[in-house]
Design brief:
This protein is 15% helix and 21% strand. The longest helix has 5 residues. The strands form 2 sheets. Strands 1-4 form a two-stranded antiparallel ribbon. A two-stranded antiparallel ribbon has the order 2-3. It contains 2 helices and 4 strands, in the order E-H-E-E-H-E. It has one domain: Alpha-Beta Plaits, CATH 3.30.70.20. By secondary structure, it is of the alpha+beta class.
Length: 68
Amino acid sequence: MAKVIIDIEICKGCGLCVRACPKHLLGLAASKLNSRGYQPAEISDQAACIGCAACARTCPDLAIEIEK
């Protein structure tokens, strides 16, 4: 099973990973802000992740890591 690790302090909430996920598992946190005032991305269902790494490849800030 793959695990998505998002560094919320690096994430600027651009949403590119949200659009890239083929399983629609990522979204921007509605009630959470990082120290820079951005809504970071979060995963809704870690177990459903297929580990394709589309989110990590599209992140311009390298805030996402896939652990297999």
